[in-house]
Design brief:
Structural class: alpha+beta
Order of helices and strands: HHEHHHHEEEEEE
Strand content: 15-25%
Largest sheet: 5 strands, mixed
Strand order of the largest sheet: 1-2-5-6-7
Number of strands: 7
Number of helices: 6
Radius of gyration: 16 Å
Shape: globular
Helix content: 25-40%
């Protein structure tokens, strides 16, 4: 009975839920909703649901992650060029986080979308690529991020469906 209830809750996830999470993090409502993609991925095994994954994954955009050390990410971009974001060399983690949120919010082309099962998708004139290091939709919740005004290449939010590692993000510049 409990499993049925959990499944029913997952089905009730909607666009407004993702928009609310973006708002809580101080970001604009840029979530591109696809009901078919979310429905098919909620059917995959895992202990972490879509909303929990999105919330923890979104927070991972603003921290220096050990999981993706050495990869291009938002935090490293700002920390390596603090002056470009109006910061000093001695910028705190909080200042870097605010700079990331500000830069993302100012990008009129910012969008975040759940990567489809196939991994590579063409939406209109836009191509969403799978992550660079082989993470799959079967094992991870993967959101594709496009923010060309801030981060010139593709980026991904990754949350392991079984919760076995911390959420992280990286991109390709």
């Amino acid at each position: 009975m409990m499993e049925l209830y959990a499944t029913e809750l997952r089905v009730m996830v909607g666009h407004e839920d993702f928009t609310r999470i973006l708002s809580q993090e101080g970001l604009p409502p840029v979530y591109r909703w696809d009901a078919d993609v979310i429905a098919s991925q909620q059917a995959l095994p895992g202990s972490v649901g879509a909303l929990e994954a999105f919330e923890t994954g979104l927070r991972a955009l603003f921290v220096n992650s050990k999981v993706c050390a050495g990869r291009d990410d938002f935090y490293s971009l700002v920390a390596s060029e603090p002056e470009a974001f109006g910061l000093t060399e001695a910028a705190s983690a909080e200042e870097i986080q605010l700079a990331i949120k500000t830069a993302l919010s100012k990008d009129s082309d910012l969008c975040i979308q759940l990567l489809p099962d196939a991994g590579l998708a063409i939406i209109g004139a836009e191509t969403m690529f799978p992550p660079e290091y082989g993470e799959t939709v079967q094992d991870f919740w993967i959101w594709f991020i496009r923010s060309p005004g801030f981060f010139p290449g593709p980026a991904w939010i990754l949350v392991r469906r079984d919760g076995s590692i911390d959420a992280y993000h990286y991109g390709y510049i």
